[in-house]
Amino acid sequence: MRLSEFYIPLPDTNLRAALQEKIDHKTKPPGALGQLETLALMLGLAQGSLSPSLMNPHIVVFAGDHGITNEGVSAYPQAVTAQMVLNFCAGGAAINVFARQSGITLRVVDAGVAHDFPADLAITHAKIGYGTGNFLRTNAMTETDCEEALKRGTAIVGEIAAQDCNIIGFGEMGIGNTTSAAALMHIITQKPLEYCVGAGTGLDGAQIRHKRLIIAEAIAKHNALAFSPLQTLTTFGGYEIAMICGAMLQAASQKMIILVDGFIATSALLVAYTLHPEILHYCIFSHESNENGHATMHRYLGVEPLLRLGMRLGEGTGAALAYPLVQAAVGFLNDMATFDSANVSEKISS
Questions:
Q1: Are 169 and 283 in contact, with CB atoms under 8 Å apart?
Q2: β partners of residue 258
Q3: Closest CA to 151 of 231, 280, 249
């Protein structure tokens, strides 16, 4: 599956005027619900409906390891990736708590963890390899493996869509993946590395500078600044990032609403957006991570997140926390009274 092979339909803009009229005639001053009104309009356009709905919400957490951790770019050992997958399966992680709270089905995918999980573990076994290559020394993935990761991401979303799901979020787990995400961001946005590289799992100032130098050295070695999106993803990405990229493209191609999580998930979106900017019509940006670079990503895409909570955890936690706001946008559009139905006087014309 190549990035260029996806077809993403454009929303039906003919509905815009009718949706806006419906929003404006609810029992409130125009614009009084702020971002919820913008969100309701986006949802109606994306679904091509004056009465959008949310069905069977899912969050898929893709997990994978990264060879670049050998260069000392993370505060935690690589073994934590597998340990956290087991924690997800036991229901003990933040994403488990938040997904349960909002009635969201959680699915965990082994995209490329450097560990053999039991065959009967309640995860999707989609492993491409036991962690990527160290991109300072070689490409993170072969082009064949990257394309296979994209394909497996699309297949997983296809299965979920067949279960009458029309809204989906994507989380990740992978020690070292903020390093991959920062490299992807730097190459795609052309922003200085100082704007792209952050603390990740908790690096101090000296460690962040080391991380930045490692990325700069790798980019110079690969002469990567003119790379295509697929080359960039193959050279610097992760199995989980590639699967998220494919999953997002598949979701948009099926007109599903995409809850975009944090820094790493948005790096996957950057790759997809480079070839298919129309994907943004289906994206809700759930929150702005405290990870250095995420706000710059949002400015580059020209989007506004729903939440700014100072989080930098990943796992899809921002997507889960934003979901009740999406429900609220749908709820007011479908269920809130109009001035006429409630017999409430509208604003006096000047």
A1: no
A2: 168, 283
A3: 249
Give me the mean pLDDT over the 235-246 stretch: 98
pLDDT of residue 349: 67
The answer to whether 153 and 245 have CB atoms below 8 angstroms apart is yes
Q: How many CB atoms lie within 10 A of CB 216?
A: 14
> Which residues are catalytically annotated?
315
H or E segment to which residue 324 belongs = helix 317-335
> pLDDT at residue 350 above 70?
no
Kindly give the interhelix angle for 263-275 and 177-189, rounded to the nearest 10 degrees: 40
pLDDT band at residue 341, thresholds of 50, 70 and 90?
Answer: confident
- pTM, rounded to two decimals: 0.96
Integer Cα distance of 36 and 19 in angstroms: 13
Q: What is the CATH number of domain 58-327?
A: 3.40.50.10210
- Tokens 């080359």, residue? 231
Q: How many CB atoms lie within 10 A of CB 49?
A: 15
- Which amino acid does the sequence have at 192? P
**Where along the chain do its domains lie?**
7-52+333-342, 58-327
Q: Which secondary structure element, helix H or strand E, spans residue 264, and what is its range?
A: helix 263-275
Residue with tokens 């019509």: 281
State the CATH class of domain 7-52+333-342.
mainly alpha
32-63 pLDDT, tens digit each: 999 999 999 999 999 999 999 999 999 999 99
